[in-house]
Design brief:
mainly beta; Porin; 4-stranded mixed beta sheet; 4 helices; 47% strand; globular
Amino acid sequence: MSKIKSLILGSAAGLAAIAGAQAADLPVKAKAVQYVKICSLYGAGFYYIPGTETCIKLGGYAQFDATINGTAHGQPAWSGTIGQQNRGSDYFVTRSRVNLNIDTRTASEYGIVRTYWSSNFQHTSGDGPSSGVLTTDLAFVQFAGFTFGKAISAFQTPWGGGPVGVNTSNLLGGYDNSTGITQVAYTWQFGNGVSAQIGVEDNRIINRAPIFNGTGVGSISAANFFSGAYTNSSGGNVSPDFVGNIRVDQAAFTAQLSGGLHNIHASYYGASEPTGHPTDEWGFAVQGGIQLKNLPTGPGDKLSISAIYSEGAPKYVIGGTTGNSFSAFGGGADPAFYQDFASAALLDGVYNPGGSIQKTKVWAVQGGYEHNWSPNWQTSVFGAYVNVDYNDTATAILRGSLPAGFLVAGSNYNPDFNIWQVGTRTAWTPVQNLTFSGELLYTTLETSSTGGVVAAAGNAGAFKPAGNYQFKDQGMFSGQLRVRRTW
């Protein structure tokens, strides 16, 4: 009996030892790992990149646009085929776009090191069935107060070309650089919402309008006159633009004063180097704007007003996606003319052989008011007025560049023009980050010329016959429907 008892106890001890050894080999339950760790340093939506101290935020949107009586970006029918108002015109244009942006930030002894990238993948009417366009709107690095890369210009107000909620990218009178400009800039933060920024910017495309060389009668062809696209005699890009601003951000308002210097560099007087060239000129632009945010009309309502004056730097007033030529036709009520029209050219300056560059003066005002009827509904009204003025010398050069016999007897050609706009937009946000909006814009292109011109067949544009065409202001409605889902 004692032997049986000893055998049982020994077996139990052996089993316990084996079990203990096996238990030591089993994995211990690990503490849960947070693979995506929230980064609360820079606001909602940031996460730590695993294994680093860098925080990242992904964002973007999907968007559908339909523009009526205009082109992409909500541009009115003030140029190109749509401005001719014939059966070759597209009565509507659609665009589908997906935006992706990536924001990274890392704390350092020099402050926050930030990188930002934003691109659009889009398909517009006229693109192939499976084709489209990839754009790079913004791409920059920020370090120790410096910004390097494609970023918003220091000249632009925080609300840019849209004083309030707008869809169109062609509301004039407020510098609109929402797709960025390549630059090196430095920003000072003085505290209490006061800041200042200076920048050196690449002006090759965005801030340069054409320069016109009036070499004599016929240097503006009839076709170019009707389109507003005069021959460009700009030289190379020899100097960046220099810009800066002073800004005050408060709970009740944001105000900014900004300025820019722009080099005007023309080509030669003639076809070769020995003909010489005009001396470079410096253009400039100044802008002041204020946005009131705590209005008694309701929470979230705001009112924005800005004004710009420029000499030799008109793209600071008429910029963004807007081109440098304008041309629009109407039906024509005078039996002495086939149709009426308005055309205009936006130029940095004008010169003729042996002369100096005559800088174009442009000034504008822009404003808008936005009211929130409820958390889901808002309406905005907005408008702008732009005045383009060529001095007497520039006017004489342009007038002397028209084709011989082009003007109808008794007519007066004056290259000055005005553009005024008024519009409204209503938006509905049924759920967070999903917005349906509709916009209506009325634009008038005002000409300072009187009388008319004599055109050969095709000079006024496709399908336009030979005949007399009368100078007359042109008004046009355009509209846009938009659906945007932001994430």
